[in-house]
Each structure stands twice: as structure tokens, then as C-alpha cells.
Amino acid sequence: MGVEMRIDGCISVAIFGIICLSPCLCLANVEGDVYQNASNLICNRYEGRWVRDESYPLYDSSKCPHINRVFDCLKYGRPDHEYLKYRWQPHNCDLPRFDGRSFLTKFKGKQIMFIGDSISVNQYQSLICMLHSSVPELPILEQGRGHITNYTFQGYNVSVILFFSTHLVDIVNGKNGRILKLNSIENGEIWKKMDVLVFNTWLWWYRSGPKQPWDYIQIGNKILKNMYRMNAFKLGLTTWAKWVNTKVDTEKTKVFIQGISPKHYSGAQWNKPNEPNCAKETVPINGSTYPTGLSQASYALQDVLNTLIKPVQLLNITILSQLRKDAHPSSYNGIGGIDCTHWCIAGLMDTWNQLLYTALM
Ligand SMILES: *[C@@H]1O[C@H](CO)[C@@H](O)[C@H](O)[C@H]1NC(C)=O
Ligand SMILES: *[C@@H]1O[C@H](CO)[C@@H](O)[C@H](O)[C@H]1NC(C)=O
Ligand SMILES: *[C@@H]1O[C@H](CO)[C@@H](O)[C@H](O)[C@H]1NC(C)=O
Ligand SMILES: *[C@@H]1O[C@H](CO)[C@@H](O)[C@H](O)[C@H]1NC(C)=O
Ligand SMILES: *[C@@H]1O[C@H](CO)[C@@H](O)[C@H](O)[C@H]1NC(C)=O
């Protein structure tokens, strides 16, 4: 158990972590709030630093046939491999090592769904590779239909599913074009049947021009041509939070949401004002803080999370990912251009999944 974004009148603690009895022994907190007392008793898994670890990466990406060309950095010629050698070290505890077999055993007959944009695809494919490398002989049944990709680890009957959605709220075809409906989540009927849900949305809210996947915005009965995007993001996310509060049986379904995934297109943010992007980066930032702090989107997300009454765990990966200016594909991808938005597989996504694993096991 980690974060409980629960507000129950008396305590709402934004400490996302597990209780550690000693630096090496961390016990998951039982359902409920995390009480912050002697600081050495509390471990926030999301606060720490990157340390070199010769045993990394967790798997050989060339042996994982499930990586999209956007993320497959080694296949597309990335010459430096140092970025693969870092392990996330929380300040007051250790993350358990990922054990794919115990994960599959625990989730026998269950369905785990990632819902969101290409950052969700990124984390999804890393989890598939981590599980595949733990049990390489196990056949995977691959099914796909529209926005859904469903990989079932046979024998265990564990399905890891991707539901692609740019905004979480609906986009529908109307008479005069595509409508982004900020108050509506029709797909929720499929989502709420799952055992674990991992949400994410942000990347598409600021897109305009040909990359904008809608023509109008609808709020209730009002149709708008456009609006201040941060407000649209907050309204859409609030609809999601209301959906969780009213429609999800959180006794059956565990709900997670990713923090905002940072980009690295401006060296000034990491004290290299002459670098226009992440292309020259080969090592993480040493330390625990990123010079520019959190973006406005993280604060907006936090505001909405504060309105949840059901338990939702935040995978608060923003800061630890900010430190990884070296972990993007940059030019080593199969689509061309410099990409400092997505992340190489293997790499940082494996840590996001280790954190998800820690919260689930
Ligand atoms: C935890 O801290 C609170 C306030 O700082 C204190 O009142 C309480 O006694 C402490 N509990 C334990 C178990 O130390
Ligand atoms: C596999 O799990 C699904 C739910 O994910 C369930 O509907 C199905 O009956 C299971 N199949 C077997 C053979 O256990
Ligand atoms: C995923 O595939 C499994 C195995 O065929 C199936 O039982 C399950 O219903 C599928 N889930 C979704 C959401 O399509
Ligand atoms: C990182 O910082 C620590 C102290 O904060 C220092 O001991 C260590 O040598 C630094 N590592 C690198 C690679 O600069
Ligand atoms: C994540 O953690 C940071 C620092 O630990 C905190 O400032 C922030 O509010 C948290 N939430 C989000 C949504 O990033």
C-alpha cells in the first residue's frame, strides 16, 4: 500500500510510501493513511536518487519482441549504454527487486489495464518485457481490437491490457466535427471490470493544429470552439475523479494514476542553457532535486486528486523522471526526429513498473 489520496476529515497526508523498520526492511502500510512520525520510520519511495548498479538493466531489450520502434533505442543504434545502468534508490528504504513469477502468481486470472496516451504505451510495453524476461518460455496470447491491446500470459491467465485514450474523457464524432466531451467517460464501463487500472493523461491537452484530435469542446450542454487548455485538463480530470468516486468498486479494483511525465527540450532547465534538447545527455542528474521544480500540470493534477474520496494511488514519478534527462530516445528511434518526450525501453519505465509492483505486491 502506498499513497492514499483519501480525505476522511481528520487526516490527509501526502506522503506516498511504505513504512520502513530499518533501511532494508520495508513493510507495506495497511489500508488507510500513512502517519508521518519519526522521519526514519517513513519511506517515501518517490524521494531518492539514481545510483549506478552494474546488475542493471533488468532485461536485455533485444530479447523482448514487444517494443514499439518509438522506444527501442538500442535497436535504432543508441551507442551509449550508461543510461541503462541506474537504479532508483529511495532515501530510507530499498525497492524490492521485480519478480515476474510472483507477480503472475499473485494476479492469476486477473486483468491489469493501462489507460492513457503513448506514455501509457511506454510503461505497458516495459511491463510486458519485464514479465516476458522473467518467464521467457511462457506463451503470450496477443489480441487487439481498436484501441485495446490485450496480452495474456497463458498458464497464469494474467492479462495486461492497454486501452489507448488521449484524454480519458470521450471524443465523439458529431455533425460538425469531433467533440471533446469534458463531462463524459463512456469507456468507463469497460475499465471498471478490471482488477488494476493505471491511468495517465496530459500530453494531448495542449495539442493544436493538425495534432489536435478534436474540433469542439463540450461542457454539459455548452459547445465551445476552444478554451484555456489548463482549465480543460482540470475539468476532464475532474470528470475522471468523479467517475472513480461514483463508479469504481475500489474493494475489487485497485486504481493508480501516473504523475506528469516530464520532457527535456530545454537545457536551461537542467543548467545547460546551450542545449536545445536531451540529445547529448548520457547520465542522470546527481541528487534528488530538479532545478525548475514541478510544472503547473503537476499542481493541477494534485488539486484534482485532493477531490477523490475513493483510494487512488499516485505513481508520483515526476521528480525521479525529471532527473533522467538521459533516458529519452532522442534520435535513436524508428520514426525520425528528436524525441525527448518518450523513454527508452529498457530504462526508466522499468523503474515506474518496479514502483507499481511495490505498491501491488
Ligand atoms: C506521532 O506524532 C504525533 C504528532 O507529532 C504525536 O502526537 C504522536 O504521539 C506520535 N505517535 C507515535 C506513535 O509516535
Ligand atoms: C481467465 O481470466 C478471465 C478473466 O480475466 C476469465 O474470464 C476466464 O474465465 C479465465 N480463463 C481460465 C481458463 O481460467
Ligand atoms: C483479454 O484476453 C483474455 C484472454 O483471451 C480475455 O479473457 C479477456 O476478457 C480479455 N480482456 C479484454 C479487456 O479484452
Ligand atoms: C553525486 O553526489 C554525491 C554527493 O552528493 C557525491 O558523493 C558523488 O560523488 C556524486 N557523483 C557523481 C557521479 O558526481
Ligand atoms: C509528488 O511529490 C512531490 C514531492 O514529493 C509533491 O510536491 C507533489 O505534489 C506530488 N504530487 C504530484 C501530483 O506530483
Automatic annotation (TrEMBL):
Domain Trichome birefringence-like N-terminal as annotated: residue spans: 43-94
Recorded GO CC terms: Golgi apparatus; membrane
Domain Trichome birefringence-like C-terminal, first and last residues per copy: 95-358
Principal place of residence: membrane
Matching InterPro entries: TBL, TBL_C, TBL_N
Pfam families: PC-Esterase (PF13839), PMR5N (PF14416)
Subcellular location as annotated: Membrane
Domain of life: Eukaryota
Topology with respect to the bilayer: Single-pass membrane protein
Keywords: Membrane, Signal-anchor, Transmembrane, Transmembrane helix
UniProt keyword Membrane, yes or no: yes
Entry's Gene Ontology molecular function annotations: O-acetyltransferase activity
Sequence similarity: Belongs to the PC-esterase family. TBL subfamily.
Protein name: Putative PMR5 domain, PC-Esterase
Organism of this sequence: Lupinus albus
